[in-house]
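It would be a great kindness if you could assist me with a short task in structural biology. I am sending you one protein, given as its amino acid sequence and as whole-number tokens for its backbone shapes. I would ask you to consider whether the tokens describe a fold that such a sequence might reasonably adopt. The full record is reproduced below for your convenience.
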Amino acid sequence: PIPLSAESPRRWDFGDGASASGQQVQHAFAKAGRFEVKAFDGERLTDRLSVLVQPKDVFRAVSPKADAVLV
């Protein structure tokens, strides 16, 4: 959970084009980078937080018995 002020934000802007509504929301960023997450009560900005999303490690292996790639 992200610690924000005691006010109850109703709308969230995740800085990557996605948004959500509610007091508690979840969001998965599709790519790595720095994003500014904003919380709004109506049209009033109540909080903002800079979030650094690290890239995912991708494991790839080629099966020695077939031409399949395991991801």
The chain has a mean pLDDT of 77. The beta strands are 11-13, 19-21, 33-41, 44-53, 61-62, 69-70.
